[in-house]
Amino acid sequence: MSIEKYRTQIDLIDQEMMELFKKRMELSKLIGEYKKVNQLPIFDEKREREILLKRKSLLNDEKLWPYYELFINQIFNLSKAYQHDQ
Question: Is 65:11 a contact under the CB 8 Å cutoff?
């Protein structure tokens, strides 16, 4: 396969990821509003730890895990920042 075909596939995946990101952030906004009304902290260490453990077992790829862990932690940070801004 040519590099152009690989890049085209990555572009399509990036588009899908963008749409999923928008949906995720909208849900993060709603969760942030819920937490504000119910006086809950934005950061939930237990929840993040549970998600990471679950994702690690689902990914089942020790070599890829450190990169995915960085990715998902960045998503957590962006979600928390977005909740703060609401």
Answer: no
Mean pLDDT of the chain: 96
Cα(54)–Cα(82) distance, integer angstroms: 24
Q: What domains, with CATH codes, occur in the chain? A: 3-84 (1.20.59.10)
CA distance 29 to 37: 12
**DSSP code string of the chain:** --HHHHHHHHHHHHHHHHHHHHHHHHHHHHHHHHHHHTT--S--HHHHHHHHHHHHHHH--TTTHHHHHHHHHHHHHHHHHHHHT-
* 19/22 Cα distance (integer angstroms): 5
pTM flag (> 0.90): no
Spatial distance between the Cα atoms of 62 and 10, rounded to a whole number of angstroms: 23
